[in-house]
Amino acid sequence: MATLVVSVIETIIVVVMEAMVAYYFFSTVDQPFDSENTDKGIPIYLILFVTAQVYLLMMSWDAVKHRNSIQLIGVIVFNLCIFSYSVFQFFQINELTNLDPERFAVMFDNMRPFLIVIPCIVGTASLVYIWLGIRLHHDFGWDIFKQIGANASIRRMYRAYHVFVLLIKLDAFFFVGYAIQFIILVLRSSAVELWLTVAVVPVTLIVLLLAVYAVRYENKGIMLLFMVGLLACMAYFIYRLVRIYQPSQAQRYLHTSKFLTFFAVVSLSASVLTLIQTVICYRNFNRGLKDHFQGQEDEKIDYSNYPPVRMTLED
């Protein structure tokens, strides 16, 4: 419960701080989403940051609800990513405002206290999450033991499954976050690549959900296709990282390279880890974990709606 309380407090404070940053920005810029404005990335960064905080709150709630120590580790990792993002945010906004100091000097002076406080709050919360994670690891581990039993092999496969689910959640956020920035800040409305990228976003989310289904119900066909998709995804992010720093593309990625690099590197790293975990889960097929999940679902069946059976001496 303490984890959820910390997450709620962090989210409220950070959202209020981001709202103040947004207020000063929109008070200064007349047409913030104009495609010709170099500062159009600022509202996108603010929206992604607030979305990340809400996503963190959802992950914290899920970790507490299911008393899942692996999910709690995910909360710590994701919050550290938010901390890195908050540092990037300060320097990125500073860089953009330095392009027109006469116009943005007062705006950035008003933003500065909030932009400094945000990483301090997130960093402090990360330390608290780590402390709580150490304290709760034993308690949550005991709950898993009570659910799974003494079978060490099933417990190992069960942990592998939850690590896989956690990586899928991280993939979903960073893949979509990268796509949103790429679509709005880099691509032009006339580009065919724009509409292809827009179409890929919902397809990616569906594929990630299918991957979770495939692991839980041990569908080898979907898993193999998912592995191929991950390899393609890794190749795509490597390609994008190379393109960002090609001299011929310098103007295209002007003022957006840092955030896109951050999201691309995290997405690439998450893809590699997801591929490794996918192989581990695939190798665990037909070893009893599916039967355990089926047993959990059977226990949830509500038999109260069934008519009572009268037993007689003959029975």
Automatic annotation (TrEMBL):
The chain crosses the membrane at residues 7-26, 42-58, 70-91, 111-132, 163-188, 194-215, 222-239, 259-282. Keywords: Membrane, Transmembrane, Transmembrane helix. The keyword ATP-binding does not apply. It comes from the Eukaryota. GO terms for cellular component: Golgi apparatus. PANTHER family: UPF0658 GOLGI APPARATUS MEMBRANE PROTEIN C1952.10C-RELATED. This is Uncharacterized protein. It comes from Dimargaris cristalligena.
